[in-house]
Structures are given as structure tokens and as C-alpha cells.
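Example S7 (C-alpha cells).
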């Protein structure tokens, strides 16, 4: 069922049209001038607006202009209705952004067909937008953990790297890896391993700042880019993550899974010509942490 806003200053016109539209299964809301139209459109978010041109207080074309200038309302299809079917009137309304135009007295089956056409187009546009948003999410987020994926990390972190170089503000990087992750998969199955990565991601997101860029880098390895954070600040964050993970218990299929993480922390240096150089340094520090017994943070000195 579609919600249609009928705007006309003559109540009998609204009543007659509403009967036909309701018989076709639509929900009808009404307004009697352009100002009421804008208020109802903001409040009710109709699927379509039937808008009379000649009305007191604010006419239809002025209301249409306001609708098309509003980011929240501009995509609502508007069919203009008027007793004046002159070419200039039609062209003017269509140029402002009306979807269609019908002249009074109209034949309802023809108007109904135009309404169906406008609603089909609106649904197609909404489906396309949802598909584009889904594709964008697939391109930017890891499908398992919903952390940023490697590609999106570089998109965002490269921008922060450039900003850091320009402003001389600190930028730190944390590489972290789940210790003995193969044992988690062997003992609890891949579903248990997946749940451990999901819980780790959620824990890290809760502890990290909103400005930090948290990403799954591959497998059980994650990376965090920390803008405006020096080595001491990043070290503090890494240690909080390590302790919280050590104490965290993941429930998967009734089993309790404990796991730890190792972390390497560095800060971008003046001589770093690229983000990759700093990332490689953080990666080496991570493996130093793992080779030194795991469940610890190693920082760059």
C-alpha cells in the first residue's frame, strides 16, 4: 500500500479523488495549500504527491520548488494537477522537477496509470540505491567481522598519513594478531574461530576512539590507524586491548573460548616516505611480540 498526499484547496475534489485512490488500496493524506503540503510531506514522507497548481497561501509550483530543494523530500515523485493545460504551464512544472502533469477534468483510470508508473519508478530507484549501498558495503567492509577491509583501510589511512605529514601531527599504527589462532580453529571448529574474530572486532571497536581506523588486514591479523596519537597514546590503547582480550570470554556453541593477542606499535616518523614503511615497521614489532612469548605489546623506541 502506497501513501499518497493529495493537495487541493477544494475539499470536494479531495474527497472524490480520495474515494478512487482508497478503492485502489492507497493510504490517503491531505493538504489544502502549498504550506500544508510541505508540512505534511515533512511529517508523513508520502510515496507520491498529487499537487494542484492554483491554490491560496502558496501555489503548487512554489510548493514544488521547495520540495525539490529539500534533500529529504526531493525524491518524492510529484504529479501536478491543474485546470490549465497550456504548454507553458506544463513545461514550467516539469522543468521545476514534477514527475508528470495531468489536466482537469481528468479521467481517473489514466491518472491511476500515471500514479502506478511514478510509483514503479520510485521503487526502482529505491532498489537501485539499496543495491549501490550494498555494493559499497561489500567494497569497504569485511564480510565476517564488519570491520573495514584492507582496501578501505588504505583509502582512509593514506588520507590520514598525508594529513599528518602536512600538519606535523602524530599518527600511530597498531598491528595485532590473535595468538595461536590455528589452535582455536582446531579445538572449536571454524565457527568458533569466526566467533572469536567477531567478538575481538566488537571489543576493539568499543575501546578504540571514533577517529581510529580499525581494519581486518587478513586472516586473524588486524590493524589500527590512530590519528593525532603519539607512541605513548597508542601504546596505552594497545595495552588496554590486550588486557580486555585476555579477560574476554567468547561463547560459541556452548563452549567458552579464551584467546590472547600480540601487538606491535609504531608512530609515523619524519623519514617515512609512505604509509607502507610505517606498517612494515609495526608488522616487525608484532612478530617480535609473538616471538618473545605472545600476549604482549612491543613498541617502537
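Recovered sequence:
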Amino acid at each position: 500500500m502506497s501513501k499518497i498526499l493529495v493537495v487541493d484547496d477544494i475539499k470536494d475534489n479531495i474527497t472524490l479523488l480520495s474515494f478512487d485512490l482508497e478503492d485502489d488500496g492507497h493510504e490517503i493524506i491531505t493538504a489544502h495549500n502549498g504550506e500544508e503540503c510541505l508540512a505534511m510531506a515533512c511529517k508523513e514522507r508520502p510515496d507520491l504527491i498529487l499537487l494542484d497548481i492554483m491554490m491560496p497561501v502558496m501555489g503548487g509550483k512554489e510548493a514544488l520548488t521547495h520540495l525539490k530543494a529539500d534533500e529529504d523530500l526531493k525524491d518524492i515523485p510529484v504529479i501536478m494537477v491543474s485546470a490549465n493545460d497550456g504548454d507553458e504551464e506544463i513545461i514550467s512544472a516539469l522543468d521545476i522537477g514534477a514527475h508528470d502533469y495531468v489536466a482537469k477534468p481528468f479521467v481517473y483510470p489514466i491518472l491511476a496509470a500515471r500514479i502506478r508508473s511514478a510509483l514503479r519508478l520510485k521503487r526502482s530507484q529505491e532498489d537501485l540505491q539499496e543495491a549501490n549501498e550494498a555494493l559499497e558495503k561489500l567494497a569497504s567492509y569485511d564480510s565476517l567481522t564488519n570491520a573495514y577491509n584492507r582496501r578501505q583501510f588504505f583509502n582512509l589511512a593514506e588520507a590520514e598519513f598525508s594529513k599528518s605529514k602536512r600538519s606535523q601531527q602524530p599518527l600511530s599504527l597498531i598491528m595485532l594478531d590473535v595468538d595461536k589462532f590455528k589452535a582455536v580453529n582446531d579445538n572449536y571448529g571454524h565457527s568458533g574461530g569466526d566467533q572469536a574474530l567477531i567478538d575481538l572486532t566488537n571489543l576493539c571497536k568499543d575501546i578504540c576512539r571514533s577517529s581510529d581506523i580499525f581494519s581486518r588486514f587478513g586472516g586473524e591479523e588486524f590493524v589500527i590507524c590512530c590519528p593525532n596519537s603519539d607512541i605513548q597514546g597508542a601504546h596505552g590503547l594497545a595495552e588496554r586491548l590486550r588486557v580486555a582480550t585476555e579477560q574476554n570470554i567468547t561463547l560459541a556453541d556452548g563452549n567458552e573460548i579464551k584467546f590472547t593477542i600480540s601487538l606491535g606499535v609504531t608512530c609515523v616518523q619524519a623519514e617515512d616516505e609512505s604509509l607502507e614503511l610505517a606498517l612494515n615497521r609495526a608488522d616487525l614489532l608484532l612478530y617480535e611480540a609473538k616471538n618473545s612469548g605472545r600476549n604482549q605489546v612491543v613498541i617502537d623506541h
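Notes on this example. Residues 76 and 83 are 23 Å apart (CA to CA).
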